């Protein structure tokens, strides 16, 4: 072994490539000290806690309730559901969980007239649901404390549409990654009517995509559910060689990457 290898193993690091030019011992003091982001950068927003699977499930349940209320209001007035509130509005209401008309005013793309007319029905549903599940209400108001005074001043200078978009980002900024929490150990019902079954792969329950008697698993492939009445009708028609179209109420073409299990 040469002199450099001996020096490295003994803890002595040679300076330069030339031999005999001087060596130094490794330092024993810490050169770099790590600081928290809040200490080194003033005015940093604290990270919001990740939503738990239970909170995500409650939000989805609240959305379903709000959708039913919207459809009921649309039926009474003989109008399309989107005339009452769009899907985006329903999602924002479920994220805010408003307790008053002032809280629901932060919902974007919803006219003031519709808020006054239909808002109380949604507020009543949110209040009852929060009382049962213990969900936090008025999350829009609670997100305002995260803003510094300087950020609030800048927010006031933005156009109204941009302000509402930014508020929604504060409320549901984690929404883009929250879909992974749907992969919790419970299954979704597959099929139709009382004969609905549960889908799973190798004994592990996984989320499935409802497709009129067919279940599409993220693990690949589709599984036919013979207990479904619509699925049985589809199977009989396939055996007879008939094709299916969307107008018949079936998804005749499965998405790319999805195959039928034989």
Automatic annotation (TrEMBL):
Residue intervals of the HRDC domain: 56-136
Region annotation Disordered: where it falls in the sequence: 222-262
Gene Ontology molecular function, alphabetical: nucleic acid binding; nucleotide binding
InterPro entries associated with the record: HRDC-like_sf, HRDC_dom, HRDC_dom_sf
Regions of compositional bias (Polar residues) in chain numbering: 222-231
Biased composition (Basic and acidic residues): 233-251
Family annotation (SUPFAM superfamilies): HRDC-like
Protein known as: HRDC domain-containing protein
Organism: Pristionchus mayeri
């Amino acid at each position: 072994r040469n002199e450099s290898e001996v020096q490295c193993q003994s803890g002595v690091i040679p300076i330069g490539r030339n031999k005999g030019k001087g060596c130094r011992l490794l330092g024993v003091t810490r050169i770099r000290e790590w600081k928290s982001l809040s200490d080194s950068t003033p005015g940093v927003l604290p990270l919001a806690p990740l939503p738990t699977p239970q909170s995500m499930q409650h939000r989805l349940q609240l959305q379903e309730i709000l959708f039913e209320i919207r459809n009921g209001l649309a039926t009474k007035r003989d109008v399309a559901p989107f005339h009452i509130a769009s899907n985006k509005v329903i999602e924002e209401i479920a994220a805010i969980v408003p307790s008053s008309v002032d809280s629901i005013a932060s919902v974007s793309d919803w006219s003031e007239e519709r808020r006054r007319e239909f808002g109380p029905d949604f507020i009543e549903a949110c209040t009852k649901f929060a009382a049962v599940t213990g969900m936090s209400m008025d999350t829009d108001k609670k997100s305002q404390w995260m803003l510094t005074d300087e950020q609030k001043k800048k927010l006031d200078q933005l156009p109204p549409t941009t302000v509402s978009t930014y508020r929604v980002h504060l409320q549901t900024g984690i929404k883009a990654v929250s879909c992974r929490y749907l992969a919790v150990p419970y299954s979704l019902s597959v099929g139709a009517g009382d004969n609905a079954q549960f889908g799973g792969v190798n004994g592990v329950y996984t989320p499935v995509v409802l497709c009129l008697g067919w279940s599409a698993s993220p693990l690949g492939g589709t599984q036919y559910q013979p207990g479904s009445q619509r699925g049985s009708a589809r199977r009989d028609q396939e055996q007879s060689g008939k094709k299916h179209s969307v107008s018949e109420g079936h998804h005749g073409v499965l998405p790319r990457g999805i195959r039928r299990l034989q």
